[in-house]
Amino acid sequence: MDYNTSREFSSNPDLRKRRDLQGPIDDAFMGAFVCVRGTKEPWHAEQKEWSDWTLARFEREFDKWMRGKVPVIKDSDVPAIEIGKPGANDDLLARNLILFGDPGSNSVLKAIVDKLPIEWTKDGGLKVNGQTYDPKTHGVSLIYPNPLNPRRYVVINSGHTFHERDFKASNAWLFPRLGDIAVQKFSRNDDGSYKEETVWATNFNPGWRLPE
Question: How far is residue 132 from each of residues 39, 119, 126, 185, 209, measured CA to CA in Å?
Answer without folding.
Answer: 25, 9, 6, 13, 18
